[in-house]
Amino acid sequence: MRALRVTELGKPYEVLELARTEVPEPGADQVVVRVAASPVNFPDVLMCQGQYQVKPDPPFTPGVELCGEVVATGSDVTGLAHGDRVVGAGAVPAGGFAEYALMDAGRTFHAPEALADAEAASLFIGYQTGWFGLHRRAGLRSGETLLVHAASGGVGSAAIQLGRAAGATVIGVVGGREKAEVARELGAHVVVDRHTEDFVSVVKETTGGKGADVVYDPVGGDTYGRSTKCVAFEGRILVIGFASGDIPTPALNHALIKNYSIVGLHWGLYNERDPRAVREAHEDLCRMATSGEIDPLVSERVGLEELPAAAQRVADGHTVGRVVYTST
């Protein structure tokens, strides 16, 4: 089979190499799938660079999220069978950037019929992160105001749709005119282009001075610091990630004085500590996909040959929505 392999660490464009290798064999609790689609996630980029918390030894194939057809099952696998169309996590070092991939059975779910392969492949990480962040960690309520940073990206676009589905007023922050249009199409009620506008002022004006009840921050750095200036009394700042590369040091005295919460989310831990909740989230997301409340934004579909360059564009912040490798 063909697969993209990382033999040495570095920028995705430089280290993702197309190679021929054997179709992987499943472990006792794994399945082998014929890959239909696999989005580029920021963890894939970080993994190529050796900067992700999971650090597989080269050579390895990234692709932490995918949709595919089960072609083989391990001896201990139940509930999944040959021919099933599934979504979930790629089991790196045999991840989704290949013609065939491994998946751990506990992180594999039946794909929603309402979504095509590329969109279904994009339902797992970004939407599960949004679901757990907004509902379980932040307790977002109907009528509240949600501020979403990097709102046109893979994680941010999911948060916009999930926020709207929850009945919140959504303010999306993006960088550039094209990304602003994408955020509007996704359903953001108010869109802020950070290149030309101050999101702190816009949030205060939109909320009549109250501020945002929930801040969804996958950026970190100065974005986090400025968000503290427009978070509401008893608001919640969700720490999703640090795409800026700068991990902020919170001023805890400010959180005390203003009565807001700083809430961390490491979604991957739920797969280990509360897998039932992950399955419940998947079922709820499938329901919303069927009803049309959510629909993953796929901006580019690329083949294996084009994937290294596409992954680099994701790394450089030059994409909107999801960039997805598709096998056809």
From TrEMBL:
Its EC number is 1.6.5.5. InterPro entries: ADH-like_C, ADH-like_N, ER, GroES-like_sf, NAD(P)-bd_dom_sf, Quin_OxRdtase/zeta-crystal_CS, Zn-ADH-like_protein. The keyword Oxidoreductase applies. It holds the Pfam family ADH_zinc_N. Residues 11-325 form the Enoyl reductase (ER) domain. PROSITE patterns: QOR_ZETA_CRYSTAL (PS01162). Gene3D superfamilies: Medium-chain alcohol dehydrogenases, catalytic domain, NAD(P)-binding Rossmann-like Domain. It comes from the Bacteria. This is NADPH2:quinone reductase. The lineage of its organism: Bacteria, Bacillati, Actinomycetota, Actinomycetes, Actinopolysporales.
